[in-house]
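TL;DR need structure tokens for one chain.
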Amino acid sequence: MKHFYKNSVLALLWVLVTHIAMAQQGGQPTIKSKLLGTVVDANNKQPIAGAVVKIKGTTHAVATDADGKFSFVTGQSFPYTLVVSFIGYIQQETKVDGSPVEIQLKENVSQLNDVVITGYTVQERKYVASSITSVKGDVIKDQPVAGFNQLLQGKATGVQVLASNGVPGGGITFRVRGNNSINASVDPLYIIDGVFVSNTDPIQTGLGNQQGSNPLADINPNDIEDIQILKDANATAIYGSLGANGVVIVTTKRGKRNTAARISLNTYQGWSTAIKKFKVATGPETAILTNEARVNTVKDNPALPAPTLIANAEGQPTYDRFADLFRTARTQNYELATQGGTERSNYYIGLGYLNQESVVRPSDYTRYTARLNYDTYLIDRFKVGTSINLTRSRRKISGSDNNPTGVINSALFPRSYLPIYNPDGTYARYGSFDNHIALIENLDNDAVGWRTIGNIYGEYTIIPGLKLRSSWSLDNGSEYENNYSNTLISAGIATNGSAASYENKNLVLTNEQVLNYIKTFGPNGKHNINALIGNTINTVLSQNTTATGTGFAANSLKSVAVAATRSGSSSKAESKLLSFFSKVSYTYDNKYTIDGSIRADGSTKFGVNNRWGYFPSGGFAWRAGQEEFIKKLNIFDELKIRASIGLSGNQNGIGSYAAQGQWSSGANYLEQPGTAPSQLANPDLGWETTRQVDVGAEFGILKNRLTFVVDYYNKYTYDLLLNVPVPYRSGFTSYLQNYGAVRNKGVELNINSTNVRSANFKWNTNFNISFNNNKIEKLASDIALGASGRNISILRQGFAVNSFQLYKQLYVDPQTGNAVYEDVNKDGQITSADRQIVGNALPKFTGGFTNNLSYKNVDLSFFFYFQQGNKIMNMNDFFMVHGGLQANIGFLPRQLERWQKPGDQTDIPRLTTDSRNPAVNGGAANNYGGNVANLSSRYLEDGSFIRLKTLTLGYNLPSAFLQKIKVNKIRLYAQATNLLTFTRYGGLDPEVSSQSSNQNTAGYDWATVPQPKTFQIGANVTF
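>> reply
TL;DR here they are.
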């Protein structure tokens, strides 16, 4: 490692010395003219610093200073032609015959010429040899969603985004090019203004298996300028062990120097309803179905006593619990921001407030944000700056998911003929289920979070093109939760009140030094080099304190401190990462780019024998469109072909002391305190590694009005950080080691088109689609899990992660009404050996389709998101289209389609309360090995859907009117979100994953809050 770092520094110094020596060669030139000039942005007339100005046909070139100014002292006589270029602007040729001169550069609006962040540096996209997707901040602003990562759904190829539920600020599944791992984290690295931010869910309150919150909801989307998603290894390897699952780089807004203060006010008001509400069988229908199941059970088992039937089944009442559960939810958002700059400084200040109710009572989410971005030149060569984001959030948490006593469960599962209140007016209870109104009115679960994300840096320009940057950053989050269950709900009845308090702290500290060198040199500027070298020191500290209490004198007393019985616990963990990295990109003649990087990471999480990992990458890009033989085709305005290969690592998702032998204290031996071993040591535990190959092409035709980006990738992750089973005689059940492999292969396509571009009417379209195929290549043994111990999900070699293992129902026998299942091993019995993989929760492809239209002052946009091929385990059907097998639970209307008499054609078997019906498979004797009927593929449905995510109509007030009231801009708009959904899924919402607290158990729908359909109006005002 020492030699690598030393050699990289020497290589960089050699480049510098060579360049300086070249510059000093030659004699004193003859001076024939002097030229002074300024380069400015054609749109806002602001100076452009760093633009390259050269005299056409010569090697004489200069760069503009911080004020956009340049000067020439040259042997050329007037007139001559200047060639001016700058990243993100169209290269311009200007003929000059005197001094001074002002040159106005126009922005290059082609996506193929965007400026992108490629990991510690920036490059023009046309030279980049990596797969990087860019999303502008304007694309995700003013939408009724708290987390910016959720708003990237359908906006970027290779990225799958799925909301786990419709709770504001709720959990998000975000995958870049598939699931790479089993035990380690599969979430990408998020970097906001240079800060490595935590994506760990801080919520401790039990929510079944639901992911509690989206930590990135702490960032106000309207503060974001742009987002870069680094996908292939050549882009992510510079982040080493942090980049295996992709990197999401967020840049927030900053002011511009020499710009007057600009104040903007944004607000929107929204009203949300559930896209679909639960429906259950009526009281009479439920009673009839219940009686039928009891009668059929006795028919099958004559030895049983006569069934107890519900009297007057047809006359039973129907109680509507969902009118109390659902509501029209309000959303309010207010934002105030100002930005600008002086001759030496620039600033951005933003304030925000969001309050969003859930469509299912009583959950809601409130967020306050404040941001300061500031940069200033202390001297011409030394710039310092800061980015600080402060957030206070509050979540009112309910068990409105798959908790046994959750709000939705308590409204959905009780039979509809059962009353809501007892005759004396008290809450009625139904076995293990709480009364839903009792929960709504008495749940007292609050989570209050404070989070500071901050960065300060200093940047010194040693010589033109050579900069040293040092930065210090932190992500400091604290979540405080206070829960109280009083004696009106089951969680508090048995203990005479129950309280819990949690304090969860997470601190990420990072220090980085980066030396960056960017230079164009040689005849006609044919050589361009972009090199950097640096190091990172990263520390992650997490702490948790828990206090619980039971037994309260009164429901008005809620603090753990006044409980009769109290207990507590605490934990602390710390990990460190030391990294060294280097990257060099070389472009020749604006056509050929080759680059490479290497990063060395040392982590305290791993064993003493294997702490260091080395992650190299390389890429090549060929701008074939610049070749004369391609130009002669008169087809392509831009054509680039690129390829890359590299390694990246993963250490996230395992414990800070995963490789160490551990002992647990507190164990009692004959009533005495003691310790016991709890984890085996593994001194050889090392890095989970992903090798990725990427081949892509980017091209534009019709004057770049139609552009394409296509990629093929192959990701192979090996040495998985896996808990491998060990013999029981060891005293342990598993041992964390490097074993196993997962592969993801896919194709991505992005198309941008400018359909119409006239003075008054503009119409742009974007279409993107991403295919991914996931497969477990190597696994020690099957790992079954999911859905409360039912082992419906399984990890098996040769299949995708998130696979479902069920009995495959072939049909319902039209003569007997019994389900017929596939006898996989052909032994004449249906046993647990006949369970098989019948699908998985991963979509075969996802994508988005966006249209933006404007006519004069009116704009219209609409965006569709789609995904196809994923399966959803409908646990609501599992419990409520159960044929009578689930005691004391009601029915969904689809149960009415059950088999009733010979000749009926249906997929729903006859009703019975006995899961051991021997008439299955034509009367053969069967040993079910459990409840076959409820582990049936009948409940596994196609989760494909197309959704109109947003439809927006806006109007910009006329400029003549704005001048009179001295306002720069006023835009009014109306927007609908989740307006239409096209799907064959039978549940409420196909965008769901209620078991998402475990990355390997996705694709369940279990009493989950559906996505909201929102109508909102808003205004954007700029002064």
